[in-house]
């Protein structure tokens, strides 16, 4: 039995949107296919008549500086992000997150857009982008629009993208300046391609030996990618030390809604181990921003 009947490979964004409008339905975009093909084969995804391959669309393959932002196209393979000096300079948390996704062969084909569009609340690239204050560019029948990154998610495995009508183009990240830094870390089982039990990303800016601004993301801290906004509020204007770190952790624990996963860990276990992960990530970002 064929998993699909039609396979289209548009070369431009306009060709892709034309395929979205006129190709036999149901349809789905495909990039690396590391999740989608398995889901189709194992019956976790509804049947598809047409697959639209977006890996040759120039607009989705860009990785470049645009004005005051770093743009990363949705079809950029995650290994290209790991190796690119621009992401290392301006989005170190994303580089570290992408380096931990699956194994080398998967990273060569899996894309950042696919990691995000799957809408899992603990996806490594997603958690890093949440802390880095990314914006998402979306193409639709009426044109392109940019939205805050968090608005892409409505629930576990559910994005706000209109299925069959909208396509994720890429992400805009603010350029890093002096005394700004980020970090991503995770806890996983001791095998090379394990999924995260818990992950954490932090971005911060130092001024006069205090935290001028900060963003913290933890996965899975809820049904969508979780920003620890209460912990962020408690740390702004503060010097990072044992007291302020403990206060921020208490704020995070009060706000987060850790979930139990039969394959990964219980909610109680995640609450237990988040302390060390949170402190380690925060202290590394603080040290880098000095």
Describe this structure in words.
Helix 6 (92-99) runs antiparallel to helix 9 (124-131) and helix 10 (229-235) runs antiparallel to helix 11 (242-255). This protein is of the alpha+beta class and 290 residues long. The protein has helices spanning 13-22, 36-41, 58-61, 78-83, 85-90, 92-99, 104-107, 112-117, 124-131, 229-235, 242-255, 267-288; strands at 6-8, 27-30, 50-53, 63-66, 69-73, 135-140, 143-148, 153-155, 158-159, 167-174, 180-188, 196-207, 210-219, 226-227. The termini are far apart. The model has no long low-confidence stretch (mean pLDDT 95). The protein has a five-stranded antiparallel β-sheet with strand order 4-5-10-6-7. A four-stranded antiparallel β-sheet has the order 11-12-13-14. The protein folds into three domains: 6-53, Uridine Diphospho-n-acetylenolpyruvylglucosamine Reductase, domain 2 (2-Layer Sandwich), CATH 3.30.43; 62-174, 2-Layer Sandwich (Uridine Diphospho-n-acetylenolpyruvylglucosamine Reductase, domain 3); 181-288, CO dehydrogenase flavoprotein, C-terminal domain (Enolase-like, domain 1, 2-Layer Sandwich). It is globular and about 60 Å long. The chain is built from twelve helices and 14 strands.
Topology:
Elements: E1 6-8, H1 13-22, E2 27-30, H2 36-41, E3 50-53, H3 58-61, E4 63-66, E5 69-73, H4 78-83, H5 85-90, H6 92-99, H7 104-107, H8 112-117, H9 124-131, E6 135-140, E7 143-148, E8 153-155, E9 158-159, E10 167-174, E11 180-188, E12 196-207, E13 210-219, E14 226-227, H10 229-235, H11 242-255, H12 267-288
Parallel strand pairs: 1-3, 2-3
Antiparallel strand pairs: 4-5, 5-10, 6-7, 6-10, 8-9, 11-12, 12-13, 13-14
Helix pairs in contact: 6-9, 10-11
């Amino acid at each position: 039995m064929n998993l699909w009947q039609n396979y289209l490979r548009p070369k431009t964004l306009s060709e892709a949107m034309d395929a979205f409008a006129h190709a036999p339905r149901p349809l789905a975009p495909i990039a690396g296919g590391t999740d989608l093909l398995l889901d189709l084969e194992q019956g976790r995804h509804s049947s598809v008549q047409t697959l639209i391959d977006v890996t040759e669309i120039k607009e989705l393959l860009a990785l470049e500086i645009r004005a005051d932002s770093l743009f990363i196209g949705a079809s950029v393979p995650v290994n290209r992000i790991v190796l690119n000096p621009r992401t290392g300079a301006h989005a170190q948390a994303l580089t570290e997150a992408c380096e931990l996704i699956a194994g080398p062969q998967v990273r060569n084909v899996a894309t950042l857009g696919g990691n995000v569009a799957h809408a899992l609340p603990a996806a490594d690239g997603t958690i890093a982008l949440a802390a880095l204050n990314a914006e998402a560019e979306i193409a639709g029948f009426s044109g392109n629009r940019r939205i805050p990154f968090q608005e892409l998610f409505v629930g576990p495995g559910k994005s706000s993208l209109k299925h069959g009508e909208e396509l994720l183009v890429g992400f805009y990240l603010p350029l890093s300046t002096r005394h700004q830094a980020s970090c991503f870390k995770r806890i996983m089982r001791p095998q090379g391609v394990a999924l995260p039990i818990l992950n954490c990303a932090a971005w911060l800016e130092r001024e006069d030996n205090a935290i001028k601004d900060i963003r913290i993301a933890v996965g899975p801290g809820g049904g969508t990618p979780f920003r620890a906004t209460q912990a962020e509020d408690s740390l702004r204007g503060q010097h990072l030390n044992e007291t302020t770190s403990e206060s921020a952790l208490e704020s995070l624990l009060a706000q987060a809604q850790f979930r139990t996963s039969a394959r990964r860990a219980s909610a109680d276990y995640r609450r237990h181990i988040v302390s060390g992960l949170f402190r380690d990530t925060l202290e590394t970002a603080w040290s880098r921003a000095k």
